[in-house]
Design goal:
The chain is α+β, with helices and mostly antiparallel strands. The chain has one domain: Alpha-Beta Plaits, CATH 3.30.70. The chain contains five helices and ten strands; from the N terminus they run E-H-E-E-H-E-E-E-H-E-E-E-H-H-E. It starts with a strand and ends in an 8-residue tail after the last strand. It comes from Rhodococcus parequi.
């Protein structure tokens, strides 16, 4: 599947309910395989006001409907937007796990000067997390094919969880996070490969998003 994600930051004073309704109307008319339109929840970092995530059979299907989405996001209500487009990468789901009710996505930009060995090690460490974090119901790490907005993102790391506390609690506080993964993000560590500020954001969902 070809995935499209837009993280929307609204102009202060705009009506988020109205923009969410307009976004839902626009994407519902497209009729994608999986659609997420959700207001972001407290605890995000650089996470915007709204997440829109769409899945298509291929890139051509997305390109046919993209003008309508782009027109919506050119609204005066939008201050800025982070956008990524990508084919699904390494994906997994916990055995017997029901779909999560919270969708979380992390956009990162790896330094282009990072060595191939460092990049592969970074990705292995990210993908080791589900073995240790029991609240993670599904996950996917993907390279970005195209990025729009002020940051050229390189990777998307997505998960499904049961609730916000699973993200802000077990996930972020877990030893595998701060002892293994954080070194790739910490500018004081020699292994650092992520140089720019990340986009860490999440919203409620009512369906499986990853592998759905």
């Amino acid at each position: 599947m070809f995935n499209v994600t837009r993280i929307v930051h609204l102009v202060r004073g705009s009506d988020p309910d109205d923009f969410e309704t307009r976004t839902r109307t626009t994407v519902d008319a497209i009729g994608t395989a999986v659609t997420v339109v959700g207001r972001t929840l407290p605890g995000t970092i650089n996470g915007g006001d709204l997440i829109a995530h769409l899945q298509f059979a291929d890139r051509d299907e997305w390109l046919r409907v993209r003008p309508g989405v782009d027109e919506l996001l050119a609204s005066p209500s939008v201050e800025k937007m982070y956008g990524v487009e990508y084919y699904g990468g390494t994906t997994g789901r916990a055995s017997g796990a029901d779909p999560g009710t919270l969708y979380r996505t992390l956009l990162v930009r790896v330094d282009p000067s990072a060595t191939t060995g460092s990049l592969e090690h970074f990705e292995r460490d990210i993908l080791s997390m589900p073995r240790h974090i029991s609240s993670m119901r599904a996950w996917r790490l993907s390279p970005v094919e195209a990025s729009t907005g002020p940051v050229s993102w390189t990777h998307v790391w997505e998960q499904e969880f049961r609730e916000v506390g699973d993200v802000t609690g077990q996930y972020l506080d877990h030893p595998v996070h701060w002892a293994v993964v954080d070194r790739w993000f910490d500018p004081e560590c020699p292994e650092v490969v992520v140089r720019d500020r990340v986009c860490h954001t999440f919203c409620a969902v009512d369906r499986a998003v990853i592998g759905g």
